[in-house]
Write a structure and sequence with these properties.
elongated; 2 helices; four-stranded antiparallel sheet
């Protein structure tokens, strides 16, 4: 049997290495993009919860001429806000503080568990609609987190 007449099928080492390099490069691009997407989705969870608190507080104020306190967060309306103490997907704990005269409030969403989001670790909204956010070190990140 002539060796030149017989064709060996398969992949060369160069082809296999090229395919491996392509997969590694795609992975190096895709993993950070997926992580950023996941962080944005979790931040949207906090924003949604805080906007729900703001809306419920406005309704409560319209009925009672005062804002609801922390104890009324999960109480059903009209005595409370009827909201869960966590965001919809559970990534953030919602805390509500009200002034002594009940004419001012602040709602804070703190990341709970290992969300991996140190840039927007705490987000808040107050009775004036002012939105704030801080990172894990306490540095203001309002412009980055409330997009």
């Amino acid at each position: 049997m002539n060796y030149s007449a017989r064709r060996i099928r398969g992949f060369t080492l160069a082809e296999i290495l090229t395919a491996i390099v392509v997969v590694i490069v795609l992975g190096a691009i895709a993993v950070p993009m997926w992580r950023n997407h996941l962080l944005r989705v979790r931040r949207a969870d906090a924003i949604s919860a805080l906007v729900a608190v703001q809306s419920a507080q406005d309704k409560f104020f319209g009925r009672n001429a005062r804002y609801a306190g922390a104890a009324a967060l999960s109480s059903p309306p009209p005595a409370g806000l009827g909201l869960k103490p966590t965001s919809e997907h559970g990534h953030f704990q919602i805390e509500l503080t009200t002034s002594e005269d009940a004419l001012r409030y602040s709602a804070v969403a703190r990341s709970q568990g290992d969300t991996g989001d140190t840039r927007c670790a705490q987000m808040s909204i107050d009775h004036l609609g002012i939105r704030r956010a801080t990172d894990a070190a306490g540095v203001d990140r309002s412009g980055d987190c409330w997009r």
